[in-house]
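Appendix C: a fully annotated inverse folding record. The material below is reproduced so that readers can follow the format used throughout the book. The structure is listed first as tokens, followed by the designed sequence.
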């Protein structure tokens, strides 16, 4: 374990300031992400240096298509998440405790160099909640001329985000829905919380947006257009990825109707030049 960043001990509990949950955690307990634990009145990252997945991917798989197109990227993930989406596509590492092995930041960076790859992606599960390992690796990668990419749900507080953005070159941010009520059911807070992350990040580095179109969660065409209007006000040059949902984990609705997918894409193209349809088999 490694002592966590962004917390304080107050009133007999540890108050975590990493994400908008602001968990107040008792001795021996973990936060809502399940990977930040209080031991002797200090907060520790229990997934530090624990790797559940490592692969070489095309950058387009992140998905990112407007930054270093055609390149390969070393993708790493750990375990845990600070949201609770019942349709999670990587639930076996975000919601469960997978097999992991130890890997230091030095080992990750030198593996990237040995493979001749230009960049590292922090992905698969939510990178925010392996923040300590990610920023340590990103700093070292930056020193070695390697670029850094984060694939995230955007549910992070401003101070740790700004610190991290000093070392990031590109992000894909997964915008789950247009509804505050639905975001809360997924374990988040509000749409504006994620839009704030998008706005801040887009002033510092390349940002693309993913929108998984889930029946009953994000498939209302009218509401999606309102969301596109908000994104357009932030940055009219965003690249959007409109992705099809398939039944997964605890959500068993039928796959997203392709006509709805195309209707949403058509609305998005009123605002953005590049709108990619993804996961359409």
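Designed amino acids, in order:
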């Amino acid at each position: 374990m490694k002592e966590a960043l962004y917390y304080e001990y107050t009133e007999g509990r540890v108050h975590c300031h990493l994400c908008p949950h602001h968990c107040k955690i008792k001795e021996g307990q973990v936060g809502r992400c399940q990977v930040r634990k209080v031991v002797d009145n200090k907060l520790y990252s229990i997934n530090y240096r624990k790797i559940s997945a490592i692969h070489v991917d095309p950058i387009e798989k992140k998905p990112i298509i407007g930054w270093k197109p055609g390149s390969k990227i070393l993708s790493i993930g750990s375990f845990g998440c600070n949201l609770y989406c019942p349709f999670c596509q990587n639930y076996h590492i975000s919601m469960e405790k997978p097999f992991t092995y130890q890997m230091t930041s030095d080992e990750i960076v030198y593996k990237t160099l040995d493979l001749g790859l230009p960049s590292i992606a922090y992905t698969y599960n939510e990178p925010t909640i392996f923040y300590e390992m990610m920023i340590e690796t990103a700093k070292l990668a930056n020193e070695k001329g390697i670029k850094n990419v984060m694939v995230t749900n955007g549910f992070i507080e401003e101070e740790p985000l700004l610190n991290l953005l000093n070392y990031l070159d590109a992000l894909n941010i997964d915008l789950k829905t247009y509804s505050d009520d639905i975001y809360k059911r997924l374990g988040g807070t509000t749409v504006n919380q994620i839009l704030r992350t998008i706005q801040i990040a887009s002033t510092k580095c390349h940002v693309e947006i993913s929108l998984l179109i889930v029946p009953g969660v994000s498939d209302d065409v009218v509401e999606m257009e309102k969301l596109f209007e908000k994104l357009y006000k932030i940055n009219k040059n965003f690249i959007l990825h409109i992705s099809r949902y398939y039944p997964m984990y605890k959500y068993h609705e039928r796959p997203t109707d392709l006509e709805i997918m195309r209707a949403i894409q058509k609305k998005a193209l009123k605002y953005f030049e590049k709108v990619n349809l993804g996961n359409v088999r």
